[in-house]
Amino acid sequence: MSSSILRRTGAIASITLALSFGLAACGDDDSDSGSTGTDGSSAPAAAGENFGAGCAAVPTEGPGSFNGMATAQVATAASSNPVLSTLVAAVKAADLVDTLNSAEALTVFAPADSAFAKIPSKTLNGLIADVPALTKVLQHHVIAGKIAPADLAGEHETLAGDKITVVGSGEDFTVDGATVKSKVVCGNVQTANATVYIIDTVLTD
């Protein structure tokens, strides 16, 4: 058995485990990293003005926290965040870690574990086994340049060479693929070379 097959098998196993335990990792963390003011309004996080209910699942301390992610390149930062474990396994399977980490500036729409859990396991495992198709799907979630929330709405070209449209304003954004719509659940997460928007549905189209 070749080393490439072993690596791919390991990646599929990682995704299977992530699908099994990813939701628990999000749901069992009672920390509220999206801090609020005394009036109940959202307050800026130290690493950027993070927003969205999904930010509560991000660790408050350590490498996977907002502060921790801000000091690491995007793929490395995501690997420390339990909310993004399935995405990280997919990125490794597609051999995109170095590509993402070496980019000067990116905007990444990062599906949470709960987003991958919406995909039937047979379909997901088939996608993981098809590296060209997986690579295209992952690149469909990435835009060149760091885009701030104020500039997020509009049509953007992805690294896959196609388009996605973001609608909304303030702290309420939806990302539209060809047939799939995904909600931004935790926005404006900063890493050393990317701005990340965590979304609730994988943009497969």
TrEMBL record:
InterPro entries: Adhesion/Biosynth-related (IPR050904), FAS1_dom_sf (IPR036378), FAS1_domain (IPR000782). Keywords: Signal. GO terms for molecular function: cell adhesion molecule binding. Residues 1-24 form the signal peptide. GO terms for biological process: cell adhesion; extracellular matrix organization. Transmembrane segments: none annotated. GO terms for cellular component: extracellular matrix; extracellular space. This is Fasciclin domain-containing protein. It comes from Nocardioides marmoriginsengisoli.
